[in-house]
Every structure is written in structure tokens, then in C-alpha cells.
Amino acid sequence: MPYTKKIPLKVKLLTLFFLFLINPGLITHHLHAHDVGNLEQSSLAELVDSTSPSVVTIAIKGTRKVQQNPFFDDPFFERFFGQPQPPREREFGGGGSGVIVDGIQGYIITNHHVIEKAEEIKVFLKDGGEYLAELIGSDPGTDIAVLKIDLSRTISQMSLGDSSLLRVGDFALAIGAPFGLSQTVTSGIISALGRPQMSSDGYGDFIQTDAAINPGNSGGALVDLQGQLIGINSAIYTRSGGNIGIGFAIPVNTVKNIMHQIIEFGSVKRGLLGVIISDINKDIAEQLGLEVETGALIQEVSPNSAAEEAGLLVGDVITSVNGEETETSSDLRNAIGLKRSGESVEIMILRENKAMTLSATLGELVAQEPVKADELNSLLAGAELADFIPEGKIKPQGVVILSVLPNSNAANARLKKGDIIWAVGNNSIANLDDFVAIIKDKNILVLRV
Q1: How confident is the model over 124-150, as pLDDT tens digits?
Q2: More exposed terminus of the chain, fewer Cβ within 10 Å: N or C?
Q3: Is 113 labeled as catalytic in the residue annotation?
Q4: Which parts of the sequence belong to the PDZ domain (predicted)?
Q5: Cα gap 176→97, rounded to integer Å
Q6: How far apart are CA 59 and CA 94, in angstroms?
């Protein structure tokens, strides 16, 4: 047996120290020459140079109605004071960022909230080019909008990645124009995946990143180290209005789905299954004798819906859609809501603890067009209304308030966004048409919310 002498740890460390003094490059080479993609960790300049021309700055202009005292509407005011009535509209401006996804056709992705209610949209390229943009369509549910600019030449475009391949800890760059500044780049990592939407009526989930995202970054690019788009920056969690290291981006796979629908149809034709569902927990599973503690439990099936035609029943537990697990009711809502109406889906269910697979052709979730309450009755001025259709239902069951302007008549009446109006006085209402017929020309309104 050969003799081997153990070298003390102290001697080993001293040896490494002297080697470093003689040739520090032996260590620094291994520390700093590690490739990340095709780039060295010491600089991301080449990556920024290749991707940043595909990110644009967006500026918008528009007008909004200004709530004013009804006293000003009286012609006596003008006759007595000899002054014209104050203007009823006020100009507003804003902006954000966008990403060029087709440098030939001129298609640009941004957030819905960046261009919402804009009457004029301008796009500014990094090279100084300036264009008027056309809004092709937008989807409030996923906060995605598609713009188009007319091009006389081909411009840089961003290649689209695959957000299903992302892992927590992957490096990422956020590119945009925060606070009205020129294009800015920040770096960080993917902090979390599958974060839920911040609004109850949103679809899909978020990528969370600690790359600094600030106001003005909305609609900009979240890029991986291969130079591919992995998300559209959309929101931040903050109490001060600035970045605290918690930013959110819409996954690029969701962006691709919605973008193709908007380009093809001009809007999103969102799928509808027609069920009312709830989550399952341990207590519910025990009470119902279920052998699973995850899934979407069907509480109600709407008549003449895709679910009824597919043979789904109350008490069924939906466990997957097209092979993707649905552990919660939110998972099912996103799985169906991000698919196109008319699309067929394979639904795995448990019925009396026996697995079954059913096929359903999705109906269409009709987008509700908002109605300005000013046009219906001045007592409700400042509110926007629409039919209220509960999740999984086909017919409306009242009127929902979509928004309320501050200091408006509606705000003074203590109406709030999300309120559901189900009756006016003693008269029940089923939809917006019923509501309009009752409130027309009324001087006093008693709303049941």
C-alpha cells in the first residue's frame, strides 16, 4: 500500500496565497471569465446594444371630461355674468415604453394601461425616429395592447423567447424609459414565477423580478441573457411610488397568445366554459368524500354553455386542461380565459373519484363596452357602467360600476369601482337596459348596491 502524506489545511491555503501573489490571473480568470450566454459577466454592454434598439418610448395625449357644478349649465349663468361656460374637457398626457416585435410590419407591444383613453399615440425610436401609432387593439384582462407604425424601412425587432423555460434565479434585464427619462437599463434576477394578477378581473400570472421597474417602464422589455424577450414590464409593488425591488412582468407566452388574437381579430375573443367553481381544501374534500385536495370544484353549470354540452356536472372536480394541472379555481380561470373562443380543450375531471376526460368547445366571453353615466343621468356623472355577468354565467345579473372619477357626482354619492347595482328603488334590474329605462329623467335615485 503506497504511503500518502496528508497536507495540513493551513499549508494548502498558504500555497494558494503565494500562487495568487505570483500570478493573480490564475484566480481572476476563473472568477471573471465565466461565460453567461455568449457574454462575460464583467459587462452586458453587447447584450444591451443588440436589444435596446427594439425598445421604444411612447407618449400619449387625450382629453377627459371635467366634472363641474350643475350651476354652470344654467343659461342664466352666462346671461347674468356675461361669461362663457367653463370648458367641459381637459387635456391629459402620459406615456410609457413599448417593444417592437415586427420590424417589417411595424407591430409594437405595450401595456393597455399605457395607451388607455389615448387620442394620439406617438412612438419614439432609440435612433431618434418619431412615428404616429395606430392602436390595433388592447386587452384590459391581460394589460396588453398592440400598436402599429407605418414604416418605409425595416427596423430592429425583439426576438421572442419561451417563458415556460424560466427558472427562479435566471438573470434578466429591464429596458424602458422611467420617469420620462431617455432609455434606461436595469438588471436583476427572476425572483418568482406564477405570481397572481393584482386585479380580480385579470387573466394570467406574473413574473416577479428585482430588476428596477419604475413608472414609465410599463410596456418595456424584460430580456434574458440570450437577448430574447421573456416578459413585458407591467407593474410594481410599492408604497412610495418608486422601485423597492418588487417588479412584475407579463410572461412572453401570454403576450404571444394575446398579440396574435389582437392582430387577427382586432380584439381578444376570450374563451368561456360556463361554470361556477370553487377551490378545494382538506375540509371540503372530507365532507364530499373526495380523494383529492386540489382542483376546481364545479358548483354550477350554466344552461346552454360549453360545459353543459361537454357533459360537465355539478360536483365534478376539474384537475387539468389540455394536460396542464389546475390546482385551484384561478388556474382554471386562466387556462380557459387565455384560450380563444371556438377552441376545443381536453378537460380531465374526477367524478365520484373516477378519472374521466371530456372535450369542450369553448364559447365566447363577450367583452362589456363601458357606458358613461353622464349620458344617462347627470346624478351619476363621473361613473362608467356595464352589464354585470358573474364568472361562469352567460346572462347579466345587474349593473357593475367600472370606474368613478374623483369629486364627481357619482363619487359624492359614495359609489365605488366594483359596486354591483341590482335594484333602483323597489325595481329589480337584470341588465343595463333595465337600469337605463328606470333612471331616465329621474331627479332622485335610490340605488341598491
Answers
A1: 998 888 999 999 999 988 999 999 999
A2: N
A3: yes
A4: 262-353
A5: 6
A6: 6
Point out the catalytic residue in the list 54, 191, 218, 408: 218
> Rounded to two decimals, what is the model's pTM?
0.72
Q: Is 112 a catalytic residue?
A: no
Q: Residue 83: pLDDT above 60?
A: no
Three-class DSSP category at 363: strand
From the list 102, 143, 387, 419, the catalytic residue is: 143
**Nearest-angstrom CA–CA distance, 215 and 179:** 6
Assess if residue 42 is contained within a domain: no
CA dist., res. 249 & res. 111, Å (int)? 10
The mean pLDDT of 286-307, rounded to a whole number, is 88
Helix axes 25-32, 9-22, angle to 10 degrees: 90
Please state the rounded mean pLDDT for residues 410-422.
81
pLDDT of 25 above 50: no
Q: Residue 380 carries which side chain, given as an amino acid letter? A: L
Q: If you average pLDDT over residues 333-351, what whole number do you get? A: 90
User: Any idea what DSSP says for residue 384?
Assistant: E
Residue span of the structural domain in which 184 resides: 159-265
The domain that contains 257 carries what CATH number?
A: 2.40.10.10
Give yes or no for residue 6 having a pLDDT over 70: no
Quick check: is 143 catalytic? Answer: yes
CATH code where residue 276 lies = 2.30.42.10
Report the pLDDT value the prediction gives residue 418, as an integer from 0 to 100: 77
355 inside domain: yes
Q: What is the mean pLDDT of the chain?
A: 80
224: CB partners within 8 A, 6+ apart: 161, 166, 170, 171, 172, 173, 230
Residue 207 covered by a domain: yes
Sheet bearing 423-424, strands edge to edge: 427-428, 423-424, 447-448
